[in-house]
Design a protein that fits this description.
Helix content: 40-55%
Largest sheet: 2 strands, antiparallel
Number of helices: 7
Number of domains: 2
Strand content: under 5%
Length: 122
């Protein structure tokens, strides 16, 4: 199914009849498929995409997106730091482990067996 959706999108963006000359979507679609040649092109592309707000929130720190959750995490970190936690799952870990656990690798999931997966996964 994802391949069919991708092919439909490729057909849609490659059909010149769907784009009016100079439309913002056409410019973004064409420019995002090739390397940007200089800073002016990059700046123009960023202006065309400026109406989209969700990438800003995806790249914002937790303190900006949800200060209440950030505060809860900080309080829990202080609680664990100040006390002796005998439960292994509540022990402090290194920064590198925290970065790995919070990385894009946590987006991976698989079902089935190696070489016989139900879908791409990992």
């Amino acid at each position: 199914m994802p391949m069919a959706m991708a092919m439909a999108f490729v057909r849609k963006i490659s059909n010149p009849a769907l784009f009016r000359h100079g439309s913002a979507f056409r410019q973004v679609a064409l420019q995002s498929t090739v390397a940007l040649s200089n800073e002016a092109d990059y700046s123009r592309l960023e202006q065309l995409k400026s109406h989209v707000t969700w990438p800003k929130q995806l790249n914002a720190p937790l303190e900006e997106v949800d200060p209440e959750i950030a505060n809860i995490i900080e309080l829990e970190k202080n609680r664990q730091w100040k006390g002796l936690e005998l439960i292994p799952s509540e022990n402090f870990t290194s920064v590198s482990v925290m970065q790995a656990v919070g990385s894009v690798m946590t987006n991976k999931y698989s079902e089935g067996y190696p070489g016989a997966r139900y879908y791409g996964g990992n």
